[in-house]
Specification:
Distance between the termini: 93 Å
Family: Belongs to the DNA mismatch repair MutS family.
Pfam families: MutS_I, MutS_II, MutS_III, MutS_IV, MutS_V
Strand content: 15-25%
Function: This protein is involved in the repair of mismatches in DNA. It is possible that it carries out the mismatch recognition step. This protein has a weak ATPase activity.
Low-confidence stretches: 668-673
Number of helices: 30
CATH class of one domain: Alpha Beta
Helix content: 40-55%
Shape: elongated
Radius of gyration: 38 Å
GO molecular function: ATP binding; ATP-dependent DNA damage sensor activity; damaged DNA binding; mismatched DNA binding
Oligomer: single chain
Structural class: alpha/beta
Keywords: ATP-binding, DNA damage, DNA repair, DNA-binding, Nucleotide-binding
Largest sheet: 6 strands, mixed
Length: 873
């Protein structure tokens, strides 16, 4: 091979270190890509593929994008799953000896995007690490754009469900993990179910000692105990591995990641994947849109920070009644005080997303315009603090005390940065007059340089008496004094001769040189000095990152609270009573999303569940009558109450539930080889394994994916298992078309029948949408089919077949099974009681024995007698 060019030698050396990235190689005003990177980028970005000489016969494939507009191109590549390494010129080409020095300054991955034009401002962009160890699994998440950093751990037996639940909650854009986790079946499930980008990390970086060192060095601490990580080795490994990956790819100290929070399963209500999907908390099941979700109803936030916090609240309901009530009291005060709420909203409207702006400030990518946005965002903080000072509720008073007005940061930016700064930080025009005396001098030289030269020219004429003396300029000498030969005898001694011409001579003076240097270099010096001053200001702001982040968090909480108050007022919601009891008592409850869509035409219903006589409601009635809506609204009202929201009801008493489980609708997972019925059974199994007496279960049409008798048998057995307090005993709404199950009322403790009222008009039916006591005697399926538009011939034949099937009357068989089931339960209870009595007698007899006074033969005989009695129990 012929020798390759020095520039391409440099390219290959850098590319070798970043084999798995598309390398954006800075050449002048462009980022260039070569060879395979160029082929990929030209296809993905739809840009022209050209070529470049590199010392070989064939030209190297090449394509490029302008450096000043590269963000959009990079975002498109990252969105497609590529990693992009940004290779910059790290020295001034004018000062370089030979090839300009270049280094990769950052690797952009799906989980480390900072470009605000790409990120959804209403949601976090998380990167997650999952570490699999011998004793369990650790999980850590970080939002690089805001600095949020959390970690947790859980035992191996909980790994599959907990990891899936957490991935569903955080929706990470990227996952890094160790090799041990990749071997876990849940890793494959994650890739197939969530289509997440997985990235490789050196396995050694997850080692506990290395991870611990990484975290301690970053947070400048000698122990992680202060973060709640004492004896949490698995969580430390997950967090340390993630932080190492971020430091390695971002080439930045990441000072805005200033706190690591350890959280546990008990901090928030866990919601599994199915429940999040079925309840449509943040997006709809079909379109995957926010519109039509619970979040769309509750979101009246005025800032991006508030929108992200409200989303978190919806995704992680609270479990502490005290914390819930604290939020509810704050919402109540804001709801009842219209003027207070409007003042707060007006202030919030002036605020940009300064939480994410601070991320770019720390990264040193924020420009002067963003600093100006930061200043405008915090300008009204003193006014907000005064406004909050009028609040009476405990939570709002806490917020008032913690709110930092950041006045010194506002004053610094206000004194330094012009009102409407340019986008670029390399072209000047950012710094206000009066901030820097040196800059003001250069600026004055640029604008008044010509007048200064004219003034010096006039002064020199008067001093020397040479009336035709002139100050001129050329590119060779710069500024000089020109004197005709007839006046040479009047030239002062301090004039220094530079050039002799036929008719005149040219001179310079130290004063003229100083002025010339000031004028000629003023524009370049202005640009350089402005950039230097700007970076000093930006660094000063970055040094206050913890104060600003805390303030941003407080603003986000205020915004989320006022949003809930605003919705409560507009939608006529009521404050729920929330406690640690076991009652769910909802009067005139409404579905928040459906009600809003129907513009007030929604028919309300009551719900009552407890841990005793009414813990399991069997709900029957025809399709389209509203069973699913009713059950979902109950779950949503409970969830809303536990995030601290008012609820759509005339009154509500909610005993805190530890989990909400739902099994609603039909769906398959063909990619995983699971049919609709298999998915249904998998979700039911998950519920039965994890539900407790404190849980709320929403079960719709269990067993409908198989034959009638198989399905009825499964639904029956599931009901018995849930109703049994030894197994589950959870508060449950159970909708079914198996009317035979209504026979269980009076046979199983805690079971009550309810149905959806309908009114028949000939062959048609009217859905009254009201829940009432009792069971439905048939499902009106044929009538619903007629409403759906099935051909009359099909409807007629359906009625004929229905009459024949009704003659078989499997309900009678069901009644017999129910009686047998009750008799079997009573017999079991009797046997248990007899066993307990026998056990007590044996225990008492053992207590009366004087073993030390017995001979070996007597002891052996007594043991034989006791064993005989035990076998007969």
């Amino acid at each position: 091979m012929a020798k390759i060019t020095p520039m391409m030698e440099q390219y290959f050396a850098i590319k070798e270190q970043y084999k798995h990235c598309l390398l954006f190689f800075r050449l002048g005003d462009f980022y260039e890509m070569f060879f395979e990177d160029a082929v990929i980028a030209s296809k993905e970005l739809e840009i022209t593929l050209t070529g470049k000489d590199w010392g070989q016969e064939e030209r190297a494939p090449m394509c490029g994008v302008p450096f000043h507009s590269a963000d959009g191109y990079i975002a498109r590549l990252v969105e497609k799953g590529y990693h992009v390494a940004i290779c910059e010129q790290v020295e001034d080409p004018k000062q370089a000896k030979g090839i300009v020095k270049r280094e990769v300054i950052r690797v952009i991955t799906p989980g480390t995007v900072l470009d605000h034009t790409v990120l959804d401002e209403s949601k976090n962009n998380y990167i997650m690490s999952i570490f699999g160890g011998k004793n369990g699994y650790g999980l850590s998440v970080c939002d690089v754009s805001t600095g949020e950093f959390q970690t947790t751990e859980f035992p191996t037996i909980l790994a599959a469900s907990r990891i899936l639940d957490e991935v569903a909650r955080f929706s990470p854009a990227e996952v890094v993990c160790n090799e041990a986790f990749l071997e876990h079946p849940v890793a494959k499930d994650l890739k197939e179910r969530f289509r997440i980008a997985f990235s490789d990390v050196d396995n050694r970086m997850f080692a506990y000692a290395t991870a611990k060192d990484t975290l301690e060095h970053h947070f400048h601490v000698s122990s992680l105990d202060g973060f709640g990580l004492a004896k949490k080795e698995i969580a430390v490994s997950a967090a340390g591995g993630l932080l190492w990956y971020l430091l390695e790819t971002q080439k930045n100290d990441l000072e805005h990641i200033s706190v690591l929070k350890y959280y546990t399963i008990g901090d928030f209500m866990p919601l599994d994947v199915a429940s999040r999907r079925n309840l449509e908390l943040t997006e709809t099941m079909r379109e995957k849109n926010k519109k039509g979700s619970l979040l769309s109803v509750l979101d009246e936030t005025k800032t991006a920070m508030g929108a992200r916090t409200l989303r978190k609240w919806v995704e992680q309901p609270l479990l502490s009644a005290a914390e819930i009530c604290k939020r509810l009291d704050a919402v109540e005060e804001l709801k009842n005080d219209l003027f207070l709420r409007e003042e707060i909203k007006d202030i919030l409207r002036t605020m940009f997303d300064f939480e994410r702006i601070m991320g770019r400030v720390v990264y040193q990518t924020a420009n002067a315009r963003e600093l100006s946005m930061l200043k405008n965002s915090i300008e009204n903080l003193p006014l907000l603090k005064r406004t909050l000072g009028r609040c009476k509720s405990g939570y709002l008073q806490e917020i008032y005390e913690k709110l930092d007005p950041l006045e010194n940061i506002h004053d610094l930016i206000d004194q330094a940065i012009v009102e409407d700064p340019p986008f670029s930080v390399r072209e000047g025009g950012m710094i206000k007059p009066g901030y820097s005396d040196e800059l003001d001098t250069y600026t004055k030289a640029k604008t008044e340089g010509k007048a200064w030269i004219e003034q010096m020219e006039e002064e020199e004429r008067e001093k020397t008496g040479i009336k035709n003396l002139k100050i001129r300029f050329n590119k060779v000498f710069g500024y000089y004094l020109e004197v005709t030969k007839s006046n040479l005898e009047d030239v002062p001694e301090n004039y220094i001769r530079k050039q002799t011409l036929a008719n005149c001579e040219r001179f310079i003076t130290p004063e003229l040189n100083d002025l010339a240097e000031l004028i000629l270099g003023s524009e370049e010096k202005i640009v350089d000095l402005e950039y230097q001053l700007f970076t000093e200001i930006r660094n000063a702001v970055a040094a206050e990152v913890e104060r600003i982040q805390l303030c941003a968090h407080i603003i986000s909480v205020i915004d989320a609270l006022q949003s809930l108050a605003e919705v409560a007022e507009k939608q006529n919601y009521t404050k729920p009573v929330v406690d640690e009891g076991d009652i769910i008592d909802i009067k005139e409850g409404r579905h928040p999303v459906v009600e809003k869509a129907m513009a007030g035409q929604f028919i309300s219903n009551d719900t009552y569940l407890d841990s005793g006589d009414t813990r399991l409601a069997i709900i029957t009635g025809p399709n389209m009558a509203g069973k699913s809506t009713y059950m979902r609204q109950t779950a949503l009202i409970v969830l809303m109450a536990q995030i601290g929201s008012f609820v759509p009801a005339s009154s509500a008493h909610i005993g805190v539930v530890d989990r909400i489980f739902t099994r609603v609708g039909a769906s398959d997972d063909l990619s995983a080889g699971q049919s609709t019925f298999m998915v249904e059974m998998t979700e039911v199994a998950n519920i039965l394994h994890h539900a407790t007496p404190k849980s709320l279960l929403i079960l719709d049409e269990i067993g409908r994916g198989t034959s009638t008798f198989d399905g009825l048998s499964i639904a029956w057995a599931v009901l018995e298992y849930i109703a049994d307090t030894k197994h589950v005993g959870a508060k449950t709404l159970f909708a079914t078309h198996y009317h035979e199950l209504t026979e269980l009322e009076g046979k199983l403790a805690g079971v009550k029948n309810y149905c959806i009222a309908v009114q028949e008009q000939g062959e048609d039916i009217i859905f009254l949408r009201k829940i009432q006591r009792g069971g439905a005697d048939h499902s009106y399926g044929v009538q619903v089919a007629r409403l759906a538009g099935l051909p009359p011939k099909v409807i007629k034949r359906s009625n004929q077949i229905l009459k024949q099937l009704n003659a078989a009357d499997i309900t009678k068989k069901a009644k017999k099974i129910a009686v047998e089931s009750q008799e079997q339960q009573e017999e079991t209870v009797q046997q248990v009681n007899m066993f307990n009595m026998g056990e007590m007698q044996l225990t008492e007899e053992l207590k009366q024995l004087d073993v030390m006074a017995m001979t070996p033969i007597e002891a052996l005989q007594k043991l034989f007698d006791l064993q005989k009695k035990a076998k007969g129990m």
